Amino acid sequence: xxxxxxxxxxxxxxxxxxxxxxxxxxxxxxxxxxxxxxxxxxxxxxxxxxxxxxxxxxxxxxxxxxxxxxxxxxxxxxxxxxxxxxxxxxxxxxxxxxxxxxxxxxxxxxxxxxxxxxxxxxxxxxxxxxxxxxxxxxxxxxxxxxxxxxxxxxxxxxxxxxxxxxxxxxxxxxxxxxxxxxxxxxxxxxxxxxxxxxxxxxxxxxxxxxxxxxxxxxxxxxxxxxxxxxxxxxxxxxxxxxxxxxxxxxxxxxxxxxxxxxxxxxxxxxxxxxxxxxxxxxxxxxxxxxxxxxxxxxxxxxxxxxxxxxxxxxxxxxxxxxxxxxxxxxxxxxxxxxxxxxxxxxxxxxxxxxxxxxxxxxxxxxxxxxxxxxxx
Length: 376
Fold this sequence. Notes:
The chain has 376 residues and is α/β, with parallel strands linked by helices. It has helices spanning 38-46, 57-72, 84-100, 122-129, 140-155, 179-186, 191-195, 211-218, 231-243, 291-300, 317-320, 326-335, 361-365; strands at residues 3-8, 11-17, 28-32, 49-53, 103-107, 136-139, 157-159, 164-166, 201-205, 223-227, 250-253, 263-268, 304-315, 339-346, 369-375.
């Protein structure tokens, strides 16, 4: 357990240090309040000094935004390769997280945030962190993420394919991009599942919120086994199955990738970009060395019933960013002794695909998401 220390009123104070993305304990921490100027805060943060905020909550948010604007003033570097915009974007994002993560707040024993005009964050923190273990220092940026996740959990995300909402938990990737859900909702079910509906089984690997497991259950699959490596995702999937009254058809299993046994249909929507995540929520987007993708492909044949199919839902964004080639994907499919029966394409509908100011706009505007139907 890490402990953060800071001087205050000629005494030494301390509290537990917590960072969801594994940010190391600050080497130096000073107290800051409404008198702190943005330039000074930015300078301290760039030098590695953390600022423990004791002023007004809304002023802290404004200071965080002002520090972000100073980071954005840096001119972009020239591109030297197809993947250079992506790597520059990731380095910039990492620098932003490192600097903005130096503005801290202190949560009391019961997760009370004792700042002027501060919201009640106790329930949001309890959902994200579990029972309190005493006063805890966290970055304001992380706390704002916890508050936002609590609102998403309360309101849910509308899923047209289900005709209802899915409620994501903190640290679990939300199904905000609906095109991959629509692909699973409209792809033809394999003959093995259609011929024996009363005994049909599907696996949903990396289930996250459980949205694809719910779609498959609603499509008539008798038994859906949903897996994930994240305990938070497993809890979230169970919660959504209960909300949708599908606990008799959806079994949540894990942590792990493949469950035991075989199925008529195995669905996998792995992280689309082969890169290292820098926070728990990024594990839904970034997968170092495409570990989950290769794990799905190599293990698929052993878990398919005769006549069964594996559905791989994958964006080609990595190809447009120069991180993976189409031939590398096809070679991996062939190496796993799999055959492509068909593929169904769709274009993204999210706002970033049309945002010309996005540093990755060229790649995003050309992106296609594909459902690959594979057999052994």
